[in-house]
Hints:
The complex is a heterodimer. By secondary structure, chain A is an all-alpha fold. Chain A has 4 helices and no strands. Chain A has helices spanning 5-29, 38-59, 72-88, 91-109. In chain A, helix 3 runs antiparallel to helix 4. The model of chain A has no long low-confidence stretch (mean pLDDT 94). Chain B is mainly α. In chain B, helix 1 (2-37) packs parallel to helix 8, helix 1 (2-37) crosses helix 9 (167-180) and helix 2 (42-52) runs antiparallel to helix 8 (129-154). Chains A and B meet through helix 1, helix 2, helix 3 and helix 4 of A and helix 1, helix 2, helix 3, helix 4 and helix 5 of B.
Amino acid sequence: MPMTPFQTLVIIVAIASGAVITRFLPFVVFPQSKTPPKIILQLGKMLPAAVMGLLVVYCLKGVSLFSGSYGIPELLAIAVILIMHKWKNNVLLSIGSGTVLYMVLVQFIFK
Amino acid sequence: MKEQELKNAFKAAFPTTIPVLTGFLTLGIAYGILMETKGYNFLWSGLMSAVCFCGSMQFAAITMLTTAFDPVGAFLLSILVNARHLFYGLSFLEKYKGMGKIKFILIYLLCDETFSIVSVREPSEDINRKYYYFFISVLNYIYWVMGTVMGGLAGGLITFNTKGLDFALTALFVVLFAEQMKDKKNYILGFIGIACTVVSRLVFGADNLVIPAMVMILYILVAGRKKLCR
Lengths: 111, 230
């Protein structure tokens, strides 16, 4: 262990504090006893769909289209997920089939 | 009566978290192993996961645990890496209204996965929403802490090739994105989210994309709110 237990605890508390601030800030600034400004309510409605797009791209941030496997495993797996989802409309089945395909691709084909 | 309500809520919540179970166990185990190799045993990695519960920041912090002692830097980096929680809080101001005592827990345990599931998958009418949100949050939390401890304890014992298993989380976001897009009014919002993040990835690189993407999304949504918000 490169740090003393005390130093490690301080780092843990520092990281936790940062996370806690980002989690609680909106609820502290806009307590439920008061109605938040209209613009905040509108943002609350618009953000989920936009953020879901952000999260998808965020997960793929390490993919390079010009080297390695050229993003082909990711592209194929996502295509299968979307097709399965359109076809069977079963969340777990879509995720399961896409993940298994991805594992097969990165373990056996695009090594 | 209450017991039955809890049971029903659990039965509704658990299936929605199975992809997270897969992803968090895999990533948690990877984290536990990595911490172990840096000299922090399962107690330390477990404590870190239990108190901080922020996967991407925890991975980033491994370097901070092995170089010079810099708590202020760790704190600031944590705010930056976790800034996306601000969006989750804003989105859930209404949803988490009137959640009573458990509201604190729901907020403390907010994470990408819980946010995605809760914002897309509404429970049916007969399910107690409060318990439903509670179980989703707590289950996801347990998976992460459990994975971390397992990795620290027994990471070396895993013999099958887990490469690619963490894609379950990407798949989860893809499916929940697809669910959002069932509502035509969300097309343009989803497009804005993807476009801003792609641009941010290209301009700022893989390590610094979140904050610029958030700023762009925020700017466009605020500027276009009259047309974008139904």
